Amino acid sequence: MKTKKILALALGAVCVFGMLAGCGKQETGTVSTDGSTSMEKVIGSLKETFEAENEGITVTYNPTGSGTGITAVAEGRCDIGLSSRDLKDEEKAKGLEGTVIAYDGIAIIVNPENTVDDLTIEDIAKIYTGEIKNWKEVGGKDAEIVLIGREAGSGTRDGFESITGTKDQCKLKQELTSTGDVITTVAGNPAAIGYASLASVKDSVKALKVGGVTPSETTIKDGSYKVQRNFVLVTKTEGKLSDAAQKFFDYITSSDASELIRKAGAVPVK
């Protein structure tokens, strides 16, 4: 009888220890991300898989634009910022650091009815600064070019203007606040031109060649497609992420995330 009691107590202790150990292994909490609308597909895919493998953790995504996401990290309003451009020196000076997780091509998009298929970076710069005003000047139909772009603070706009050398010179007809809005607007106007993350481009628009090179994973990775930028995770240099946020950060910067990033339309670093 005494032996049975001892055995029962021992088994009970083992069960309690096992439950405690199990609890210790599962992280719980919420990870908040904020920033680039261009990174929506990438972060959405990574978030979905991560949450499925870590049931106690919820990841939120607030698509506010790169500049707003960077500010949110600096002000402590989110765990991880998402930026589709590299950090500027003044942002690094505020105690922020960037980690590149993928490369993304910026597609130059037109309406599918547009007969133009290829532009040089010089052509694109002249179009956006107003030097070239009509599609017939670059081999298209006789129609005034309608310039569509992103709002100030957008990582896509910053990347586009840096690459084309058009910073603060673009004569935009419309400044829109999301990648989706740019695509929808260009899709609805045969004379329009815009720029958008390649990962977000749909069949409703046509992505142009630039300097004879089609935007694709291969041409982005080998550098032959010149209109490209980085997808960056923004965190504070000092200070520690929560356990849940650190686990998410470690996952999305690991080689395990590469295939998901690729399927989302971007080119993984690893």
Q: Could you please describe the fold and organization of this structure?
A:
It is built from 10 helices and 12 strands. Helix 6 (155-164) links the parallel strand 6 and strand 7. The protein is elongated and about 60 Å long. It has 2 domains: 29-103 and 231-268, D-Maltodextrin-Binding Protein, domain 2 (3-Layer(aba) Sandwich), CATH 3.40.190.10; 105-228, Periplasmic binding protein-like II (D-Maltodextrin-Binding Protein, domain 2), CATH 3.40.190. 37% of the residues lie in helices and 24% in strands. The strands form 2 sheets. Strands 1, 2, 3, 4, 6, 7, 8, 9, 11 and 12 form a 10-stranded mixed sheet that branches.
- The helicity comes to 25-40%
CATH class type of the largest domain? Alpha Beta
**Overall SS class:** alpha/beta
Number of helices: 10
How much of the residues is beta strand, in percent? 15-25%
Can you tell me the number of structural domains?
2
Sheet having the most strands: 10 strands, mixed
Number of separate strands: 12
CATH-defined topology of the largest domain: D-Maltodextrin-Binding Protein, domain 2
Radius of gyration: 24 Å
Topology:
Elements: H1 2-25, E1 29-35, H2 40-53, E2 57-63, H3 66-74, E3 80-83, H4 89-92, E4 96-110, E5 118-119, H5 121-128, E6 146-150, H6 155-164, E7 174-176, H7 179-187, E8 192-197, E9 206-207, E10 209-210, H8 217-221, E11 228-236, H9 243-252, H10 258-263, E12 267-268
Parallel strand pairs: 1-2, 1-3, 5-10, 6-7, 6-8
Antiparallel strand pairs: 3-11, 4-8, 4-9, 4-11, 4-12
What can be said about this structure in brief?
By secondary structure, the protein is an alpha/beta fold.
